[in-house]
Backbone:
């Protein structure tokens, strides 16, 4: 059958593509490219593949730089698309390399653009990214918009100063009566906060390297740098936050992306290369403000309208039941309508239905890394900041969004302490017997490691699991939603300082010839007197040495091609006509989603932004008795099917053309004969 | 689809409207009719050409359909450049149907210009302030409100298509003027099982049946057909993106609030106005006119914003309590608390991101349409939706006897393609939310007076160097006072709280002059000063409304000292003071 063939071909294409990409020729990266070199490389790519690659100038930054977007594909807006935003903060050089590497691999192999268009923005914040190539070197995600950070009488008047002349802005430590910092025991290069509760007294004050240029008593309080594009998007936008911009979309960079995304309903997936990694750390919930659909407080005036006692909370289902009869005919009360009716506000936590694919893909990605021989443990990637690109893409576009940070500082291998030896992911795969078989001691250790609330002690949890009230998988899902102790799963030893800093220092010593950390050196400061200048070099913690880039790309980029195989792909299947007599026929069909991602996501269902897939019946001489000529398709879960039926009257033998149209999930057509 | 016959009738109607509105536009402007979008533009051009020196006419931007959004700036160049004066911004008609807001703006401009030099109060505000007037924000909406069939409430939004019923088609099934009378009214069908029966007091009204009573009517909603054949009538009309939910402060997406638009400033005209305002940082007072209800609303527009700073509330209360007297019957209210929460609305934007005091004027109260000898209906007599009351009966009598039937379209039979024999009738487009033209004059005058009143109380800062004292040798002490006669401070309290922009600057400079110390004078008798440790010659300050601040500087040197007060909203004041003894005057 035609459909099966199409899907099969697509599968083969992607499979072949994945193999080619893994071994295909990709230009070697010797050093990171500054924004103008990036634009030259983009132009070069266009010249090399003129039939597949188009370049769009999306915006000109406040600093006068061009923000380019690469379009790769043969079919433009007629097929689903993946939008890739990289280096939105401008402080993640490796993200830009990843975008360029991805673009090159796609352009080199037409199989990647079979039925798929790619929109790739390699540098979402060119102004901030340009600083990576400046001397002195410092890291700031602000674009080139002048901004008066300290709301005084001057703008951008007190930035950093390279006092020691090494071309790198680090820190200054000064012994001061009001110091709060002390050196880390055993590693005096690192600093930690003195613990006043243990009777410790601080020794040092820490400043960034520089002088008080404007003589206002503050150091480096108003450096150049305006808005961080990556916190300028409309979901959880922070008014008057640091570097957040005047309003969501106030910057040409973010405004262009907002506009482009809404003009392109074919965008079916968003990838973000930058500071977060949804493949390793799926989006986290637990934010305040999101309502619990099982316990909604109804405001008094609404309660009066509905004729209910508002002293008790209601479930979403109950409210839908109450509201439905009050609506005009044809209007359906759904969660989205109720939420806006009750003023429940914006969704701020990933919806549980969507977490199931995030968690599944995360496990798959970890397996993938294992198979690739990646065993080094790294610190958990950061979660997105308020107003971030990837948050907006999920909450406002309602699309599946995946992010990658491509590299992280490896953890220092420590002597294995007696611990549980299992992770939350391990737990998710265990049977009840396997779990209880771990024994109380290991389970207690596991709960402690993962910061389970004290009331969940080992014996109680074992009781619940063996009694069947809770499955290990459910428990794992719950634990993934919990904040992790010490931010990173390991209980931090205060005296040893920040474990991330220790790990970075050790990485710098072993792999960067110490260049990631500038040793403290004394300096005579004009206003602070005797100080020491030193500390971590900017970017050391998030930017792998350029020599590592190629192997990182070979490792991570092929997984993107695995991800896009999961895109929802709708097809009409099992079309059937039943003769009900008297010229009346029942038409029945299934809409099958051959992709493993749902269409739309639960968030997309809530915000109603993804354009609906629509089934249309066309045919002469037929009358639809029940059902519609145009039927919007509801949610079709990943690898699931949904059935639709119509009652049709036909006087003779007629042909009905059934078409399924969707910007994001593909098109399909079937013809059937009815009557006669 | 519209029948050919309907089209002809509509065309004839449109022509009649055009002819009846072919009033000549000349200065002074008349206010006994409503200006179409084209007439508004003509009126602005007429004002500009009558007063070319006092006005400038800007193209702020263009709408989705390419219409120009015009702004008239009134400034007397003899008293200074616009940016040096407290700016008063006034707009209207952000909702396309709320048309008399545009007339209030035109009237204000007309009043200021034609009475300049004739009335002292007008001359003073024109000389001291700059007025920025955008009579029509939603230019497409106004144009379509006049040209198309509408209800008094339809055509609010921007011309951005939205798939309201999420079926993949955009704006495919809006109301239709099926009887071709230029109004979208309501449809009803005879139905003995219906929930309504004829009101015995006025057969044009329907009242709900009580249990046991026999029904007579079923309401079928707004005039229209099922254009897209999906089994629903009028479920996906024009838009809807609400221009007043699309601004960039505390914006929330459409699933949280209908009409928000896909992202802040999606509306091209809305974005253009925002940028035009950002280029005029002197705007301290904003009025945005709407209809209806008879209210002046201040922010915040949503509960979670918390209350405004007390200093700002005092300013609003002063304005609001006086405006309630200037426009009797109108109430001064708090937007979220007394009305409902909104996100991304205009005045929250101006209050927070322009740093201005901002009021929404909701023009007109239909309760003034009476036929019982009283000026207005009492509150409890106002009509409630679905339940005709004395209020609606009174309004119909007003329609019959005072407006000669202009406001209500009588029920008429119609053969509907879906419902069969029905009746169509109800309140006309030009009714309910706006006064009939003979009542317009008072409305525009009183509400324009609110604006002129507020302009009189914009910050007015004077500098008084009230003491210069020699301490020893070249060391001098200077005391300076900044006095504000306006009700509004020179920087809003909200601006300071948000750190939107730097506070005003009081600086001391001079050739060979060194500022040794400086700070706010807490007590002029004891000489208590809160000294600023760094950069004492630059003091960041705010001059409160109806108030003063005093500073003391110690300077060393000879000759003249220049004291300068610079404010975005209150202009710049400079004094050059010689370093010689000057005793405090009382």
Residues:
């Amino acid at each position: 059958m035609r459909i099966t063939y199409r899907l099969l071909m697509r599968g083969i294409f992607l499979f072949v593509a994945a193999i080619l990409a893994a071994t295909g020729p990709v230009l070697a990266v010797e050093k990171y490219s500054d924004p103008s070199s990036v634009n030259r490389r983009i132009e070069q790519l266009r010249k090399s593949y003129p039939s597949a690659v188009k370049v769009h100038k999306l915006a000109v930054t406040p600093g006068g730089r061009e923000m380019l977007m690469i379009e790769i594909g043969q079919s433009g807006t007629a097929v689903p698309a993946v939008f890739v935003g990289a280096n939105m903060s401008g402080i993640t050089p490796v993200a830009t390399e990843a975008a360029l590497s991805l673009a090159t691999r796609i352009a080199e192999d037409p199989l990647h653009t079979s039925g798929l268009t790619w929109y790739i923005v390699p540098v979402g914040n060119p102004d901030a990214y340009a600083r990576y190539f400046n001397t002195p070197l410092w890291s700031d995600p602000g674009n080139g918009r002048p901004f008066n950070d300290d709301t005084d009488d001057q703008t951008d008047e007190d930035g950093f100063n390279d006092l020691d002349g090494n071309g790198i802005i680090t820190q200054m430590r000064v012994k001061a009566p009001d110091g709060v910092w002390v050196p880390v025991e055993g590693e005096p290069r690192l600093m930690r906060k003195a613990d006043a509760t243990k009777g410790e007294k601080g020794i040092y004050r820490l400043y960034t390297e520089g002088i008080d240029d404007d003589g206002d008593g503050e150091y480096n309080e108003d450096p150049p740098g305006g808005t961080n594009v990556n916190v300028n998007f409309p979901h959880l936008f922070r008014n008057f936050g640091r570097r957040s911009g005047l309003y969501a979309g106030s910057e040409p960079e973010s405004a262009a992306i907002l506009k482009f995304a809404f003009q392109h309903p074919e965008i079916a997936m968003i990838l973000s290369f930058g500071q977060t990694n949804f493949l390793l750390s799926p989006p986290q919930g637990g934010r305040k403000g999101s309502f619990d659909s099982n316990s909604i407080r109804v405001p008094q005036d609404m309660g009066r309208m509905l004729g209910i006692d508002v002293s008790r909370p209601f479930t979403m289902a109950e409210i839908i039941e109450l509201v439905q009869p009050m609506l005009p005919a044809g209007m359906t009360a759904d969660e989205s309508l109720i939420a806006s009716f009750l003023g429940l506000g914006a969704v701020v936590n990933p919806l549980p239905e969507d977490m199931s694919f995030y968690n599944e893909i995360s496990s798959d990605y970890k397996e993938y890394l294992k198979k690739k021989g990646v065993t080094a443990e790294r610190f958990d990637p950061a979660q997105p900041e308020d107003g971030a690109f990837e948050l907006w893409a999920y909450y406002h576009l309602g699309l599946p969004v995946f992010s990658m940070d491509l590299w992280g500082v490896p953890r220092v291998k420590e002597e294995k302490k007696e611990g549980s030896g299992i992770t939350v992911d391990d737990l998710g795969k265990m049977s009840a017997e396997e779990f209880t078989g771990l024994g109380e001691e290991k389970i207690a250790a596991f709960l402690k490691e993962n910061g389970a609330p004290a009331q969940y002690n080992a014996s109680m949890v074992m009781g619940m699991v063996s009694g069947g009230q809770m499955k290990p998988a459910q428990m794992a899902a719950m634990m993934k939603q919990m904040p992790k102790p010490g931010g990173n799963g390991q209980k931090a030893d205060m005296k040893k300082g920040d474990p991330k800093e220790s790990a970075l220092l050790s990485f710098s010593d072993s792999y960067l010839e110490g260049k990631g950390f500038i040793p403290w050196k004394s300096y005579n400061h004009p206003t602070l007197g005797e100080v020491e200048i030193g500390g971590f070099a900017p970017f050391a913690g998030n930017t792998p040495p350029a020599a590592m880039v190629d192997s990182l790309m070979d490792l991570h980029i092929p997984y993107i091609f695995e991800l896009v195989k999961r895109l929802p792909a709708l097809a009409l299947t099992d079309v059937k006509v039943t003769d009900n007599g008297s010229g009346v026929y029942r038409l029945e069909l299934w809409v099958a989603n051959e992709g493993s991602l749902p269409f739309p996501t639960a968030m997309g269902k809530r915000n109603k932004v993804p354009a609906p897939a629509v089934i249309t019946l066309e045919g002469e001489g037929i009358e639809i008795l029940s059902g519609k000529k145009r039927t919007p398709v509801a949610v079709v879960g990943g690898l699931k099917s949904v059935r639709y039926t119509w009652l049709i009257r036909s006087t003779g033998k007629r042909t009905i053309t059934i078409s399924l149209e969707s910007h994001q999930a593909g098109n399909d057509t079937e013809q059937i004969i009815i009557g006669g | 689809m519209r029948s050919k016959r309907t089209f002809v009738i509509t065309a004839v109607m449109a022509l009649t409207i055009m002819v009846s509105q072919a009033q000549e536009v000349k200065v002074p402007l008349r206010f006994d009719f409503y200006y179409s979008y084209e007439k508004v533009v003509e009126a602005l051009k007429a004002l500009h050409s009558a007063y070319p020196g006092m006005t400038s006419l800007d193209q702020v931007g263009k709408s989705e359909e390419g219409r120009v959004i015009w702004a008239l700036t009134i400034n007397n160049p003899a008293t200074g450049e616009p940016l040096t004066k407290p700016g008063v911004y006034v707009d209207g008609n952000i909702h396309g149907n709320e048309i008399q807001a545009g007339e209030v703006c035109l009237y204000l401009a007309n009043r200021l210009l034609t009475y300049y030099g004739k009335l002292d109060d007008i001359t003073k505000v024109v000389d001291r302030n700059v007025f920025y007037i955008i009579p029509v924000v939603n230019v497409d909406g106004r144009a379509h409100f006049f040209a198309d069939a509408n209800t008094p409430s339809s055509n609010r939004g921007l011309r951005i298509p939205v798939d309201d019923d999420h079926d993949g088609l955009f704006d495919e099934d809006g109301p239709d003027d099926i009887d071709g009378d230029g109004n979208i009214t309501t449809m009803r069908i005879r139905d003995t099982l219906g929930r309504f029966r004829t009101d015995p007091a006025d057969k044009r009204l329907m009242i709900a049946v009580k249990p046991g009573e026999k029904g007579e009517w079923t309401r079928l909603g707004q005039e229209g057909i099922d254009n897209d054949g999906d089994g629903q009538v009028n479920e996906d009309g024009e838009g809807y993106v609400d221009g007043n939910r699309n601004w960039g402060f505390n914006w929330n997406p459409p699933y949280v609030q209908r009409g928000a638009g896909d992202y802040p400033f999606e509306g091209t005209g809305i974005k253009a106005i925002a940028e035009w305002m950002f280029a005029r940082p002197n705007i301290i007072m904003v009025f945005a006119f709407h209809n209806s209800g008879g209210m002046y609303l201040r922010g915040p527009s949503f509960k979670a914003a918390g209350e405004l700073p007390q200093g700002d509330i005092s300013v609003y209360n002063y304005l609001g309590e006086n405006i309630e007297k200037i426009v009797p019957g109108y109430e001064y209210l708090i937007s979220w608390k007394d009305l409902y929460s909104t996100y991304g609305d205009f005045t929250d934007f101006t209050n927070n991101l322009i740093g201005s005091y901002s009021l929404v004027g909701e023009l007109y109260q239909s309760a003034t349409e009476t036929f019982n000898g009283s000026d207005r209906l009492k509150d409890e007599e106002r009509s409630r939706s679905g339940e005709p009351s004395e209020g609606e009966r009174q309004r119909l009598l007003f329609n019959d006897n005072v407006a000669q039937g202009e406001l209500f379209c009588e029920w008429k039979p119609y053969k509907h393609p879906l419902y069969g024999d029905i009746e169509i009738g109800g309140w006309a487009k030009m009714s309910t939310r706006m006064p009939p033209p003979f009542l317009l004059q008072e409305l525009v005058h009183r509400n324009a007076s609110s604006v002129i009143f507020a302009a009189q109380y914009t910050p007015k800062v004077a500098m008084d160097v009230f003491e210069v004292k020699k301490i020893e040798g070249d060391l001098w002490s200077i005391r300076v006072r900044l006095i504000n006669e306006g009700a509004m401070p020179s920087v809003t309290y909200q601006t300071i709280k948000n750190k939107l922009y730097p506070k005003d600057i009081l600086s001391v400079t001079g050739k060979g002059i060194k500022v040794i110390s400086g700070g706010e004078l807490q007590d002029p008798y004891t000489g208590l000063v809160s000294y600023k440790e760094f950069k004492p010659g630059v003091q960041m300050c705010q001059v409160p409304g109806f108030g003063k601040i005093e500073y003391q500087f110690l300077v060393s040197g000879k000759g003249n000292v220049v004291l300068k007060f610079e404010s975005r909203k209150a202009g710049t004041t400079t004094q050059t003071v010689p370093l010689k003894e000057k005793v405090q005057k009382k």
